[in-house]
Amino acid sequence: MAKKFRANFFYNDHQKDDKSMQLIIKNGLLVANGQVFHGDLAANNGKICALGQDLSFLADKDTLIIDAQDQLVTPGGVDVHAHMSYFVGGCWTSDNFASGTKAALFGGTTTTMDFVETKAEESMLAALKRRREEAQAQACTDFSLHMSILPHDMERLDEIGAVIAQGCPTFKHYTAYAFTLDDGQLYRSFKEIAKHGGLPLVHAENWPFIQELIRRCASEGKLEPQNHPLCRPAWAEGEAVRRVLDIAYASGAETFLFHQSCAEDLPQIERARQRGQIVYAETCPHYTCLDSSIFTKMGPLPICSPPIREKGQQEPLAAALVSGVLDSVSSDHCPFTRAEKNRPDAFFKVPGGLSSVETRFMLTKDLPNMSLNRWVEVCCTNPARIVGLKNKGALQIGFDADIVIWSQEPYTITSDTLHEKADWSPYEGRQVSAKPETVIVRGQVLIKNGQFLGKPGCGQYQKRAVHRNI
Ligand SMILES: [Zn+2]
Fold first, then answer.
1. Could you report the per-residue pLDDT of 328-354, keeping only the tens digit for each?
2. Residue 375 structural domain
3. CATH number of 56's domain
4. What is the number of structural domains in the chain?
5. Residues 6-17: tens digit of each pLDDT
6. What's the CA-to-centroid distance between 83 and ligand 1, angstroms?
7. Could you tell me if residue 21 is inside a domain?
8. What is the 131 CA–ligand 1 centroid distance (Å)?
9. Which H or E element spans position 244?
10. Distance (Å, rounded) from C-alpha 238 to C-alpha 71?
11. ipTM of the complex
């Protein structure tokens, strides 16, 4: 995947007569065009206009000049899987769009994506409009939304074409929870989406089997958090991934698999690609950085699904990100407070999900063998390309000037210094090698010296279109 996204040019031939730039970042270590180089970046009207050496001649008295002092300069992060202002497991997520997207910015993520779910009697277009307005009132990052296909949406799959025409070409499917679609329903939905050039997204786990294991735990009084991953074995994810990919193959749909948590998924993804399927797949920081010993340390707090898995599952996922079997890293941010998570009666009553919208980008940098270029690809460029966020995710001429300047002082993650609202972090005490210092969205500095300079609602909605064989 990496090679496809490389452009081999620098824009060095700007003429002195050209209009001056509003923003120049000087002396950066830029991760751009598949390369890492010392140089400058210039932006005007919210777009990147020049990349190269010694661009000071493009400045005039009104130009904001930032000296990056040899620090890393990357595109803004793109997190295409987060849940803000979401009611699940009997609780509202502790971040709404305002606090969650602000935390994302502090973590260097400048575009976030969330989900639309229809109510029983609501059309997809009406639900999209409602959720978009809710997010627009609060969003601090640029943002977009995926549509969900719930069981009650099977009666309105004929709306899919209109939803795609409105700039929402991605549709989330579940093979778990009350949202479970059976194989025939998946096939029907995938076919309709493929007909209109959209992209199905899938949460794949074998739910009937998981339910039976949970029922057995309950009847045997095994209620501690350590039982959570035991009820969702890795093979029950690998099996579901294989089945979903077979259904996608039969339907002719491309597929974006969400939150791969185990090595069992990887041969299934490769098998599908070998027969010519277009398959994209993401993982999350909690699957590459954490193992199930965390339940001993933190009790029910880290319960999420798919679960954080046993030691030994993390390295293959990190290696698959580096090698290209996995394409991207999302947060699956779905935060709850300690009080909401601490339900001593049974692990299966704990609302599932954890915080990582702020830490995703920095944690991924430090994965084993992760080059700077690959880091930017999996956290910015690839997710933007896959879901059709045009002009996002790369330091490239003509793209939005969404930029992060990184401090390379080591930073120890603590919930006290994070901006996520949950009063705990699964990464408490973990040291990372770099942290965003200055964060810029469409040429506007929104984070500087630890201060948020924007306001809720300053994020812009992104209409999207996906293209085959990107
Ligand atoms: Zn999710």
1. 999 999 999 999 999 878 999 999 999
2. 77-387
3. 2.30.40.10
4. 2
5. 333 344 444 445
6. 7
7. yes
8. 16
9. helix 234-251
10. 41
11. 0.95
